[in-house]
Design goal:
Strands 1-4-3-2-5 form a 5-stranded mixed beta sheet. The relative contact order is 0.30. The chain is globular and about 30 Å long. The protein is α/β, with parallel strands linked by helices. Helices cover 29% and strands 40% of the residues. The chain has 2 helices and 5 strands; from the N terminus they run βαβββαβ. It has a single domain, classed as Signal recognition particle alu RNA binding heterodimer, srp9/1, CATH 3.30.720.90.
Amino acid sequence: MPVEVFDKDQFITLSAKAKECRVVKRAGMVKLKLRAKKLFVIKVKEEEAKELTARLKCPVVEL
């Protein structure tokens, strides 16, 4: 089961160990999914997603 993260700084720290981050855009919301040993997910608004993906330390794949 995926682990939902609510803290943006914690999500960025986890991205250092991830293979990739997948971006899934839904109506008004964006899901960012980190692929590591576990799957970590954060849900943010579209404006916040752009800032967050720029700070990630792993490759970003948009779906």
